[in-house]
Amino acid sequence: MRGGSVSAARAAEIESVIDRVTRWASGRGDVAGLLLVGSCARGAARPSSDVDFVLLTTAPYAVASAAGSAIGEPTLTRSWGPITERRFVTPVDPGTLRVVTDGACSLYDPAGLLAALLGAAG
């Protein structure tokens, strides 16, 4: 379990979400990587923690449409130059930078892009 002080039921729920998203991402040719970030990646999840992912894709509009049909409509869409952020649930933990730099766990990385990113980050 990638959680901290959570009940067995909550740990199973978190793992179920992680497994479902990982299976979905690994089954798509347009997904280049999936990174688990935040408290679950750090092993510090609390009962109220959400599950945060960073998704690298070669086809952002197709992936956003497919993800939206699977998990709902985004609550926030923001463009950051070559990166588009889409939040499907407002995160509990504020600050995308802190979430990404505080801990990360590569879930799907067929070309090693995330490994290189994590290595460069520190």
TrEMBL record:
<dbReference type="Pfam" id="PF01909">
    <property type="entry name" value="NTP_transf_2"/>
</dbReference>
<keyword id="KW-0808">Transferase</keyword>
<dbReference type="InterPro" id="IPR043519">
    <property type="entry name" value="NT_sf"/>
</dbReference>
<feature type="domain" description="Polymerase nucleotidyl transferase">
    <location>
        <begin position="29"/>
        <end position="60"/>
    </location>
</feature>
<protein>
    <submittedName>
        <fullName>Nucleotidyltransferase-like protein</fullName>
    </submittedName>
</protein>
<dbReference type="GO" id="GO:0016779">
    <property type="term" value="F:nucleotidyltransferase activity"/>
</dbReference>
<dbReference type="InterPro" id="IPR002934">
    <property type="entry name" value="Polymerase_NTP_transf_dom"/>
</dbReference>
